[in-house]
Amino acid sequence: MTRTLSLAAAAAAALSLVAGAAVAQDFRALARQDLQAAHDELAANHPAAVVGGQASTEFRAWLDTGLQDALAKANSANSGDAHAYLLRYYAAGFRDSNISIYPTYEGLGPYFGTSWAGFSTGWRGGKYVVTYVKPGVRGSTVPRVGDTVVSCNATPIDEFARAKLDRWEGDLNTEAGRVSSAPYLTWNRNNPFVNGVPSVCEFQTGNRRARAITLQPVPLVAGDLEAAYRATVYTAPSTPLSIETVNGRPWINVHSFADTAGWDAFEGQVESQAAALRGPQGFVLDLRAARGSGALNSASRGYGLANLIWTEAFTASRQPQAGAITYRATQGNRDWFATALGLMNADPRYAAQAPALVTQMQEIVAGFDAAIAAGQTTFQVQGRAVAADTGAPNPVQGPVVVLVDGGCSGGCLDTLDLVSKLPNVRIVGAQTATDSIFIEQTNHRLPSNYAELSYGHKAWTERPRANNTAYVPAAGLTYTGDPVDETAVRAWVGTLFGG
Asked: Fewer CB within 10 Å: N-end or C-end of the chain?
């Protein structure tokens, strides 16, 4: 573990300079204040409160109940870390990947922990399995790699995992949430609301009888937890965008949709190699860990990549139909769009380069004004119509394998909505993440100034892919081996081409 200070709380929130004096923060009071503010903002402006359907039902069910649940825990919010955990818990309870509350300072990273028992676990085939044991740690105090965790602290492991991880570290209602949070099953991550390192866990080797092991703390050395996590969960390489040759065919790496990933150079590389990509040998599009982020809509990155390979003339008629977008007609939402329009108009270059977007924003603001004046709770705008099929032939001659995992989220899922409809394309690997129909993030700083609420403030009510639906590889296209064994993954992918 490497960290400037041992706790994120100390980094940004343990002391606040007010009028030149250091004043200790009451994180319990700050947690109550921020929870109430997040609740009130979502109740006032989130579209799920009014659009109807299952997503709306789930939202309303947690909005007040979840607030009371979280407020009841606030007395344990004794640090900045605890404050962040409790706000995350409330946000995650909506089971909506586009609702989050995150620290405004550098919070807990994925490799953080205050203590551990020298091993990590992964989610494999519907079970928690030991994936890593620190070299040099042997004896009766640690399990073996490959052992299945049966129970911890006399609690069946699924029940234990839900109490320890669900909403705190990930959404255990999703496969992706299980995978990403599994290494933390027995770690102490400085969350005062849950058990730290369990005292006793039962492990099973193969079909043998489960055996109980009393876990002993192992001294943390810098890099320990990162090594354990990386041995368990696939993480994107430092160069997320590239093209290489694997088993005689192109392998296109897209492990990020962030604006900062180096798209200009990468798109130039794709364009220069388009003829080879379209050859009869086929190619692999690797979208593992491809999370969408950045100022630019990350879906447009995926669509732009598809257009470079298949050509826009071929993909345009195969893009998912946008259908209706529903807006909640509140003054707060109207003001957000009006501010965005003002920024567009204030930039002559933007207004000249994207007049259609400016016009669209003007129409949305006008829609808000009309709906609010009429006392309507919502109004709809029809999305882009699907282009007519031009009859352009498919320029890609060979088969295409699209490799995904639970890290494929956001714009990655939007990209799959398109490429999955193209000829000779197969989605393979592991189940992806899910995302909600509530899109286009808006951010709100909470009163403590230590946390920010983010949520999607319009509803894609006619999205072809249902709310919180993952892409699941078909039978025979699911990778069941070690997800971090790159040699094995690539060998398996090669067999899908018949080689």
From this structure: C
